[in-house]
Structures are given as structure tokens and as C-alpha cells.
Hints:
By secondary structure, the chain is of the alpha/beta class. The protein has helices at residues 22-30, 55-62, 113-124, 141-149, 166-174, 183-193, and strands at residues 13-18, 41-45, 67-69, 81-83, 89-92, 98-101, 128-132, 153-157, 179-181.
Amino acid sequence: MNRTKLSGRRTEAVVIGASAGGVEALLSLLADFPATWRLPLVVVMHLPEGRNSLLAQVFGQRLRMPVAEAADKAVLKDGTLYFAPPSYHLSIERERVFSLSCEPPVLWSRPSIDLLMSSAADAYGASLAGILLTGANQDGAKGMRDIRLAGGLTAVQHPEDAEVATMPRAAIALHAPDFVLPLRELRDLLVQLDTPDTDD
């Protein structure tokens, strides 16, 4: 991993997108995560329309950090993992609060990874990091490009490491990310984002 891309970088939030195979990938990424983790993590995971989500409960039982489902107008808290609720698009406003909407699906998905990432890029600019994991469609490619164009950091799960490679490949094809890494190295990258002053 090229750590020079992290030099001098100040990260204030991380957004993550995933679809098919994403639960297992995210559990692997965050298992035994440092209890001292300080950044908000916001996740869009594609879920079947109209079903309740148990993601916050499942991850809350397995991780040491606080886990919650994002609520409309709630302020993002440091050190907390948030999941987008099913059947709503999740955005982040410039005041660093969540916004939920019922607009039509984007790329057959609601919540949309693109909408979360693009809104977060507007809110955080160069202090945002985006990570795109395994998935079966192109959602997230445009959002990752928007993060990169805003000066933020982008990382994609290596297609050969992903359970379904369509989503990572789409993001790589649209706009070259800063990092293309297997899950174990994405985990190392996350830890480095939370300790930006280290140069090793």
C-alpha cells in the first residue's frame, strides 16, 4: 500500500458502499476494530425493498464501536458506525446531519450508494474517505468519482478479492481510485486514516 497518499491527510468521515457479499466483507473489515476509533463510518448496504434491516443489531453485537441506523436530521457522531435504513435514500447535508428521502431508486437501489457518497463529498470535501466493496451492479462508481473530484480519498476492494467483482470494476473503470486493495489491506488503510500523522 502506497502510504505517501496519506501524508498530511486529515479525514473527518468515512463512507462505505456494498451490495452482494457485503455483509461478510464488512464484518471482515471491521472485526476487532480498535475501540479508540474516532471517525464516523456511514454504510449503504443494498437490501431488498420493503424489508426490515437487522444490520445495526447484527453489527452492534459483534463490534466494540457504537452502531446505529441513521435517522433523519440526526447529527453524525464520532466513533459511530451508521447504516442506511431500507427503502430510503440516505444523504449527508453540509451541516453534517443525515437526511432521508423517498425519491425513486437509483440503479434499481434505494438506498443508493451514489447518493450517499456524492452528498458526503459536498459536505466534507477533501476530508472524506470513500470505500467501495463487493457488489453486483454499478452503484457507487459515480459516488467514488465525486469523492475523488472533491479532493477526498477513494479505495476499492480488489476485484479478485471481492465475492462479486462488478461494483469494484465499475468504479475502477470510471475513475481510478487512490487504492485498490484486498480486505485485509483496506482494514490497515482505515486504521491509518484514523491516525493521519503517522509516516511509517
